[in-house]
Amino acid sequence: MNVTVHRGARQIGGCVTEIASDECRVFVDIGENLPGTGCPLPPIEGLTAGDGSKSALFLTHYHGDHIGRLDKVLPDIPVYIGETAKSILLNLAERIYRDRLEMYERLMTFKPFKRIYAGDISALPVPCDHSALDAFMFLIEAKGLRILHTGDFRLHGSKGRLTLELSLPMLGDIDYMVCEGTVLSRDGQPPMSEHDLLVKANKMMAEKPYVFVLCSSTNIERIAAFYHANPKGRMFICDSYQKKQLEAVGERHNFNRVYDYAPNLDSHMKDKGFCMLVRQGEFFRRVMEKFMGENAENCLVIYSMWTGYLDREAGNQGLIDFLKPYRYRVLHTSGHASAEDIKRLYELVRPKRGLIPIHTDAPQRFAEIVPESKLVLLNDGEVLNLNDK
Ligand SMILES: [Zn+2]
Ligand SMILES: [Zn+2]
C-alpha cells in the first residue's frame, strides 16, 4: 500500500491524494488552486494520464479547491460525491458553469456510511461538519490497513457534535490519518460557532428593517443561520437560482418561507422588512439601490464570507467593486477546524502509525499541536510506502 499526496502536502487547496494497492488506485479530491497560489497540477498516472481502468475518485465536498480540476480526469474513471452535493453542483452549473453540466451529470453518488468498493480497496463515506453541505471524510481500507482522510472539516458548525459523537467513535482503529490543517498558519482566536453567529446576526438585524446579506450561494448552513435569525414577520428573499439551491437541500433544513425576488414584492418588502441574500452583479445592485436610495438609514449590508476576498492585492475585484458604495458589517466564521479541534479529532481517532498533514501551508505545526503523533511530512508527489513501516 502507498499513499501519495500529489498536490496539497504543503499548500491550502488544490488537493489530490492517492491511496494505492498493487491492484488498484483510489484518489481523494482533485482541486483547483486557490486564486493566486499553488503549484501546477502534474500529470497523475491512473487519474489524469495513462490507464484509468483500475482507478476510482472520491470527492469529499463541492468546493472548487477539491473538485476544480475534474475536467482533467480520464473519462472512464468512476467519480463519487454525496447526493445533495451533486444536486447543488448541478444547480450551480445550470446557472453559471454550463460547460461543466455534463461532467457533473456523470458523477455517481453515495450514501453516508455505505461502503464503496474499487477492486481490493474500499471507502466508507463518513459525514462531517464543514462550510459545504454534504461534506465527508473517507475511511479507506485495503490489505488490513485503515486510513482516515478528513477532507475539510470543522467542529464548530451545526454538524460538529454529530461529527464528534456519531461519526468518529464508530470508526474503530485507524492506522493513518490524512488530516487538513488550514488554520495552522493563521494565528487567531478560536472561531465563533455558527450558533453564536446566528445570535449575533439576530441582534444586528433587529436594528434595521432592510437587510442585505452577501454570502456564498452554496454555504447552506450560513444561509440557514440568517434564515432563522431573521426577526419574526420579516420576509426572507433571494433570487430564483438561490431558491433552487435551498430546495435541493430537502429535509436537511426547513426553508419553507423563501420568496423569489420580483419587483411586485417591493411594497411588501417595505412594509414588513426583509432579509435578502445578494451576490455581486447588476440584478442585486438594482434592488439594493432601490432601497438604499430612499431608505439608506434603514438598510444594513452584511458581508458573510472570507475577508480574504476583499484583500486589495489577492482579492476578488468584482466583489470589491460591488461593495464599494456601501457601508457594510462583517459577520463570518471559518469553515475549518481550529488547532484545538484538530487536537480533539486526533484524540478521538488516535492513528496508530502516522499522521499525514494536507491542505496546509504549515504542516510542521502539527508537531506542536499533537506532539504525541507520529508525524509524516510529505512533499507533493512523494510516495509513502506503508508496507515498510
Ligand atoms: Zn479546501
Ligand atoms: Zn472546503
Low-confidence segments, given as residue ranges, are none
> Which molecules other than protein and nucleic acid are bound?
zinc ion
Q: Considering DSSP H and I runs of 4 or more, what fraction of the residues is helical? A: 25-40%
Largest beta sheet: strand ordering: 6-5-4-3-2-1-19
Structure report:
Strand 16 (299-303), helix 10 (317-323) and strand 17 (328-330) form a beta-alpha-beta unit. The chain has twelve helices and 19 strands. It has 389 residues and is α/β, with parallel strands linked by helices. Helix content is 27%, strand content 22%. It has a seven-stranded mixed beta sheet. It folds into two domains: 2-187 and 335-385, Ribonuclease Z/Hydroxyacylglutathione hydrolase-like (Metallo-beta-lactamase, Chain A, 4-Layer Sandwich), CATH 3.60.15; 194-330, Rossmann fold, CATH 3.40.50. Bound molecules: zinc ion (ZN) (2 copies). The site of one zinc ion (ZN) has 6 residues, from loops.
Characteristics of this structure?
389 residues, alpha/beta, Metallo-beta-lactamase, Chain A, Rossmann fold, 2 domains, 7-stranded mixed sheet, 27% helix, binds zinc ion
Can you describe this structure in just a few lines?
The chain is of the alpha/beta class and 389 residues long. 27% of the residues lie in helices and 22% in strands. α10 (317-323) links the parallel β16 (299-303) and β17 (328-330).
